[in-house]
User: Fold this.
Amino acid sequence: MKDINAIYYNEFGIAFHWKKETKKYRSKIQVVFRDTGFLFTKNELIRFAEHIKNTMNSNSVCSCCTQKDSCRAMLLETPVPQVSLAVSAKELTAINDLIEGTIFQLNVDNFLSDICNN
Assistant:
């Protein structure tokens, strides 16, 4: 973990900045969970949060299912139009926490940076 600056993490995944910024990674947030890694801009991260909320609000498939913690019946869109993720209700909740926590921490960091620079 010496190559990264962690932004936020939970039991399901982690969001971080790479310490060694190259042109490819500049101003991007690496989000890793399950077997998947995404390199998002902050705007893409916000769009992903919107997709998560939409999925949470529109899927009642798992509300009465007895296997809702392991059944990956929900299709979660990502900011990458060609990529969607099959997730369970439990995974969706964990992804939501990871993304919302990351956005919150980025906003706190920006706020504190603004205050310190004034």
Notes: The helical segments are 42-58, 89-117. The first strand starts at residue 4 and ends at 9. DSSP finds two helices and six strands in the chain.
